[in-house]
Amino acid sequence: MVSLGEIRCFLLDMDGTINLGDTLLPGAMEFMSYLRSSGRQFLFLTNNSSQDGAHYVNKMQNLGIRCNRENVLTSGDATISYLSALRPQARIYLLGTSALEKDFRDHGFVLTDENPEFVVLGFDTTLTYQKLVKACDFIRDGAIYIATHPDINCPVTGGYIPDTGSMIEFIKASTGKVPKVIGKPNKEIIESAFRKIPGVSKTEMAIVGDRVYTDIRTGENAGIASVLVLSGESTEADLQKYGVTATLVLPGVSDIYRELKKYDINKK
Predict the structure, then answer these.
(1) Within 13 Å and on the Cβ side, how many CA atoms surround 32?
(2) Is 264 considered catalytic here?
(3) How far apart are CA 164 and CA 50, in angstroms?
(4) Backbone region of residue 195 per phi and psi (left: phi > 0; alpha: psi in -120 to 50; beta: other values)
(5) What are the residue ranges in the chain where pLDDT is below 50?
């Protein structure tokens, strides 16, 4: 059994784990403050590639959480990290928002709609039919096909809107091709976290989240510890439902805070 006190980097889901909408969950402030004061590192991990990291920094800061751009890893960031390791400055046909386009350009990639080496599908809230036509043509012609994350729907006020996973199904129906997917629950987003925070071993990293089929499965797929918190979407019964094993199941992040504090006191 992993000791939470030995974890040096926590990968944190946000909504349902740290906050619910515009409200911090009980103990979240104490937990986040203690991570900093005890010298532990953290990354906020999100599959949403329609927003850049600065959006989530502002969101957390508005809730009173101290963080900066280095504390956020989106699926868009992870895809950029993956491609930078695979083929820097590649020619890419990108289906994504202007924020995602800027991130790719800032990292040296050439965004083009002529003879791309890669087609990258993000959560494109500016999607047009013509973009989909071009993407399908390039994929049929042999461009390497990558998607930032697999979520079918994105929750919004009043319901859901189609997310990248729905676009994946559209392109699959037309081309018969499926992409390499980077975001949760795939291990590639964790590999990007290791590149972002070097020097941390697998036994020193844990993912914390409220969704069994994304957050906890990510830990299982990547071979790192996982903590299911019951402050959001999932119940403990969902572990059996989805066939996933969590390292620990706790009511919320306040319980992690108490365990860390107890570990550090006993260690002195």
Answers:
(1) 22
(2) no
(3) 10
(4) alpha
(5) none
pLDDT at 109: 98
DSSP 213: I
Q: What is the C-alpha to C-alpha distance for residues 119 and 144, in angstroms, rounded to an integer?
A: 6
φ, ψ dihedrals at 145, nearest 5°: -110, 120
Could you tell me the pTM of the whole model? 0.94
8 Å CB contact between 145 and 119 = yes
**Helices 28-37 & 253-267 angle (0-180, nearest 10):** 30
Q: Which of 13, 77, 124, 210 is catalytic?
A: 13
- Residue 13 known to be catalytic: yes
User: Residue 149, Cβ neighbours under 10 Å: how many?
Assistant: 28
Q: What is the pLDDT of residues 12-66, one digit of tens each?
A: 999 999 999 899 999 999 999 999 999 999 999 999 999 999 999 999 999 999 9
What is the overall mean pLDDT for the chain?
96
Residues of 5-43 as b/e, b for ≥16 C-beta within 10 angstroms? bebbbbbbbbbbbbbeeeebbebbbebbebbeeeebbbb
221 three-class SS: helix
Question: What's the confidence (pLDDT) of residue 155?
Answer: 82
CA angle 151, 101, 135 (to 5 degrees): 65
Q: In the prediction, which pLDDT does 1 show?
A: 63
Question: Which amino acid appears at position 37 of this protein?
Answer: S
End-to-end CA distance of the chain: 22
